[in-house]
Fold this protein.
Amino acid sequence: MFTSIAIIGRPNVGKSTLFNKLTNSRDAIVSDFPGLTKDRNYGFLRLKDKRALLVDTGGIAKDSDEIKEAISNQAWIAVEESEVVLFLLDGSESLSNLDFEIISKLRKLNKQYITILNKIDKKSDGLIKEDLKKKGVENYLEISAEHSKNLNKIKQELEKRSTKADIEFPEGKKVAILGRPNAGKSTFINKLINEDRLIVSEIAGTTIDAISVPFIFNNEEFVLIDTAGIRKGYKRNHKVEYFSFVRAMHAIDKSDIVIFICDIDDGVVDQDMKILNMIIDNGKPVLFALNKVDLVSKKELKTKYLTKKMQSEFLRNIEQVEISALNKKGFNRVFELAKNIIKKSQRNFTTSMLNKLLEKFITTNPPPSISGRQIKFKHVHFGGIHPTTFIIHSNQDKKIPKNYRKYLENSFRTELDLKSIQLKIIFRKSDNPYEGKKNKLSERQIKKRKRLIKHIKKSKK
């Protein structure tokens, strides 16, 4: 489970640098040029047993310029929807009027916020600490985001302030329903509810609510997690659009499987692929449901399957099922598949089994030589679920060709029947136990070595 944390401040105070450091990524563009971040950016931050959805925002500016005003509005939307706010200041400068206006607004919104002085490594005559004290701000953290100084203090403070516990969902396999607007998600859920006469309950647990629908299908308990449709350009649109996306991220995080519903009449479009990528990045299994098949003929349906996107390797690795939510067609197949996929996604694999398979794969197709050196795979072991992870130890890690990495991934996926399961293979270079160690010669060996050197020199003359 995760909550939302926003980073705000004036332009060029180091928000994007801090975002990249905390999320251990390079998702936000960093530059000395102010105002570069315009859209909100998001990433994950691990806080002990929780995950936080960290939101990077554009610089808040007091300007009549339409674009700058829009950027500031986007930042305040992120603040409204966050549990904790990281208010970043340039520690090498004095407190500006705009900084104080931001503090005043945070106080009016009654938001938990942590004041952070960045760039403490820069020499400066700024009086920001005295200025903050005058404004009633006595508690603050001092960091250098660029040099990763004191970042652990931010995490410690967030762990104290992030008080929201996980939502206690009813028992059952948790299924998130995702897709674009009008793909038929609501119809799908409503038909299930009407059939079983279940009450939809709203369970509050974060600033972004999640709608859960517990129900029994074929004597199996499930909990559907409903989401709003994710539109194209959600980052730049109205806050409702953007936080429909955030809500979907929460739903994926809580789920055991994601059922992605696609309107067969529209076919698979770029936005569908982006949403699927979002699910895959989260490591959760996915079932691809083609809805509204009752509205197309068999010939049209065949044509849809022959499109470039439907024929892509990306979709071939995902289980597909045809449904008609309106006519309750394909529901049995959906939940039978969902149950089996969840079971496979939570499976642990023994080391002996994985090593037998690895030996089989490299015997069938031996690894290539790199710079005259043969790649040797030593052993493989299981690394966890969501995604299912295998760790292979070898004498090389970064130099293993992409096509051979793909061959091993596809071989494991096929042999273990991991269709619809996210599979991650990590290659690790095994440590050489003799590296950096030299045999110490005895006194007798040293004398013998000197005699040999002396003999070789005489023979050369």
